[in-house]
Specification:
Jelly Rolls, 361 residues, 9 helices, homodimer, five-stranded parallel beta sheet, Rossmann fold
Amino acid sequence: MKLKSILTILALSFITMSVSAQKFVDAATLNVCGQTLKSESKPFSRFDPTKHPLPNKHVVQMSTYSTGMYVMFSTDSKNITAKWKWLKRGISNNMTPILQRGLDLYIEKDGKWFFVGVGRPSGNQEKCESTWKLAKNMPEGTKKCMLYLPAWCEITELQLGVDENSSIGPIESPYRYKVLTHGSSVTHGASASRPGMTYTARMSRYTGFDFINFGFSGECKLQPEFAKIIAETEADAYMFDAFSNPSAKEIRERLEPFIKTITEAHPDKPFIFLQTHMREDTLFDEKWLSFNLERRATVRELMPQMEKKYKNVYFLNAENITSSDYDGTVDGAHPTDLGFDNFIKTYLPRVKKILKKYGIK
Amino acid sequence: MKLKSILTILALSFITMSVSAQKFVDAATLNVCGQTLKSESKPFSRFDPTKHPLPNKHVVQMSTYSTGMYVMFSTDSKNITAKWKWLKRGISNNMTPILQRGLDLYIEKDGKWFFVGVGRPSGNQEKCESTWKLAKNMPEGTKKCMLYLPAWCEITELQLGVDENSSIGPIESPYRYKVLTHGSSVTHGASASRPGMTYTARMSRYTGFDFINFGFSGECKLQPEFAKIIAETEADAYMFDAFSNPSAKEIRERLEPFIKTITEAHPDKPFIFLQTHMREDTLFDEKWLSFNLERRATVRELMPQMEKKYKNVYFLNAENITSSDYDGTVDGAHPTDLGFDNFIKTYLPRVKKILKKYGIK
């Protein structure tokens, strides 16, 4: 046996030892947060589609994703590894695989949550599992951890590995109040760079309120099925990016029944509707520009009427929501981390002001 | 035959008609820009690796990518379609497929370049070709177009389709002066959202100077092969993100020979060296933090010596280059559009000031 082969075997043994020196726990035994409706059978799904009718099959599929979910735990381990599996789906070419199928770890320091590392999915789309070291060489002591789950897949298994001589256990979510946030792909997370950079995740970190992600890419069209679910879901406030998917005609037909259903169910809670952003691929597309202008004009016409008629309904209108130079999106429609930065700067101060009136501060 | 089938066939015929009503030209016959060294045989490659020795096979492979390249043309067509093919490579999970294999169209309006639309690659990684409408329903008149090519693949074919009754032809690049920009994955483009959002592409749009992308992911380590190529490549200025890949030890060994070679070859040109950013996954990783601190300290120690000893050498040091809150990257290392926004705000005003001294303004 050549020296090189012996060294290779020794190196491999060392890697195996180093991995086997970790013990794994099922993340479902920790504190899994961020669901709109917990599923008994699927601990990493944000909703249980067997409990409510949903508008269509695509929504049913997306409802079982781990979108907006995060696992709260503490550990005194110096290293944290994740092993996870997911159900196969196609690759969306306007998002990173890390956003779609990856993990994103934050740890608390001096009362703030900081990015620590990602869990990278396999680059081979046929392989629906991955093992990745999320954190390594950490200092002694107990770390409070928040692990964001993928935005665009159903997780079937998630194990977290820590050093054998260390402990790991659930901790409480740091967030007070629930702000159920229903919306389009923009809310769902397209096209943040990683799960912790969706606008709901960022608004939660920036405020300490739990912006629950109930976004459904392409499918948020003021449907009665969604109104009914929102009516039956308790939260402290409700926020809507509800004008990015429907046409002006659909908005005109569906807006009032939708608002009637949700406000009657929660007479004392605030309902904050965000204007949809001008698409950034409209500058040279005359038809698409008209469609977007008409849609935004319809919203500007109808929402003030709703604000007058229905107590606790708020409409936040804005221009240049994702950028002032047409460079805030990956594809015209979907904000990048930069576009979301502008989105958050545009809306969050106004959202906080409304929430404050309801004691959410 | 059922009505639905008849309608489907009619719809398909209409799509075929609509596509066949376009005529296609080989983009190589237009003005293909942004190469460091044009290749005779590969019109969409940024370098010809047969002309110069390169440090290793990975660099040879990346040198044939279309990174940083753009095609200049004008057309009075109302619609623009692209058909393109590329060589297969794995999917990088910290980048969008649009950045890696997609296209990104800008059009001039009132003297500025604006985002118009992307060309999406296939979501199936086995399929290495795509056809996509980059722009549609545009107004009458001649449009000046800049089409950014993919950052992470070798393009083997690119055809542009315009309306049959319209014309398409090459135009000059709008950029004056060449700033050859050599660097790591950060320069190469990771992890901008699309090809037009790399920092070199953005700096070019913001200044009117041509920041030529000579970035090599993971491989920019002050090697003599790169020094020789830079020595033999004429440009008006040279910029370096040269401290993101090598270790402190490598920087100490290689920096001066590298600077000697390039400054002797271009005695009157400016050489601007950018400090590497602190990795954003260092906050809890004590070893990785030390490695990064040592590397940055080495650069801060050596570069002022180089500035004294070699005329026209400049060092731009900076803190918080990608963010002040650790949320400027997709994975700790690679800036997002948001991280690059901070990067550009940190460096570009200082870069412009130096270039101005050399008449580049």
